[in-house]
Automatic annotation (TrEMBL):
<dbReference type="GO" id="GO:0005886">
    <property type="term" value="C:plasma membrane"/>
</dbReference>
<feature type="transmembrane region" description="Helical">
    <location>
        <begin position="36"/>
        <end position="55"/>
    </location>
</feature>
<keyword id="KW-0812">Transmembrane</keyword>
<keyword id="KW-1003">Cell membrane</keyword>
<keyword id="KW-0813">Transport</keyword>
<comment type="similarity">
    <text>Belongs to the BioY family.</text>
</comment>
<feature type="transmembrane region" description="Helical">
    <location>
        <begin position="160"/>
        <end position="181"/>
    </location>
</feature>
<keyword id="KW-1133">Transmembrane helix</keyword>
<keyword id="KW-0472">Membrane</keyword>
<dbReference type="Pfam" id="PF02632">
    <property type="entry name" value="BioY"/>
</dbReference>
<feature type="transmembrane region" description="Helical">
    <location>
        <begin position="12"/>
        <end position="30"/>
    </location>
</feature>
<dbReference type="InterPro" id="IPR003784">
    <property type="entry name" value="BioY"/>
</dbReference>
<feature type="transmembrane region" description="Helical">
    <location>
        <begin position="92"/>
        <end position="112"/>
    </location>
</feature>
<dbReference type="GO" id="GO:0015225">
    <property type="term" value="F:biotin transmembrane transporter activity"/>
</dbReference>
<feature type="transmembrane region" description="Helical">
    <location>
        <begin position="124"/>
        <end position="148"/>
    </location>
</feature>
<feature type="transmembrane region" description="Helical">
    <location>
        <begin position="62"/>
        <end position="80"/>
    </location>
</feature>
<protein>
    <recommendedName>
        <fullName>Biotin transporter</fullName>
    </recommendedName>
</protein>
Length: 194
């Protein structure tokens, strides 16, 4: 019994570390800079995948591990950014929003149906759209208003440029989840069995 618990804890820690590293690697892919000071990056796809594949708590842990590494100065954000200065930049809301976005995505993934790989992918699409788009963008807009001092209406309209790309990331996340569901039918999406 003790070995089974220890093994599960080790697997959980390994998955948390792996997803934090995956999000860091996604930061190596060149960013696309926009005039409002917030770049388009692939790292939000990693946030969505962490929630869908790890569940709310392990997904949150992976994001927090990544955030601590960035705050410690490691240049893991797209464009090689890192350090506490990211909390004072126009991207601060999006960066802080990674954690609640992953948690919300994982929570929804745990609640939505997963009887077949196709239904699991559909659930991932919904969960990542709510967590990775709605929640993350709400934090992003708040950051633009509070940190960049952009008026709310302007921040909202400026944020809309990210939505089409993030919806494509939701589809990519659903495809990854579908592949995992087919290859590993016993995988516990959202931290719970199907």
């Amino acid at each position: 019994m003790k070995n089974a618990i220890s093994r599960r804890q080790s697997e959980s820690m390994a998955l948390v570390g792996l997803f934090a590293a995956l999000i860091a690697v996604m930061g190596l892919i060149p960013k696309i800079d926009l005039p409002i000071g917030v770049p388009i990056t692939l790292q939000t796809l990693g946030v969505m995948m962490a929630g869908c594949l790890l569940g709310p708590w392990r997904g949150l842990q992976a994001i927090l591990l990544f955030m601590v590494a960035v705050a410690a100065g490691l240049p893991l954000l797209a464009g090689g950014r890192g350090g506490v200065g990211v909390f004072l930049s126009p991207t601060a809301g999006y960066f802080v929003g990674f954690a609640p976005a992953a948690f919300t995505t994982g929570l929804l993934m745990a609640l939505l149906p997963k009887a077949t790989p196709l239904r699991t992918a559909g659930s991932a699409l919904i969960a990542s759209a709510v967590g990775g788009v709605l929640v993350l963008h709400a934090f992003g807009i708040a950051g633009l208003v509070l940190v960049a001092k952009i008026p709310l209406q302007q921040a909202f309209w400026g944020d809309l440029v990210f939505v089409p790309g993030d919806l494509i990331k939701c589809v990519l996340c659903a495809l990854v989840v579908h592949t995992v569901a087919k290859a590993l039918p016993d995988w516990r999406f959202g931290g719970r069995s199907a």
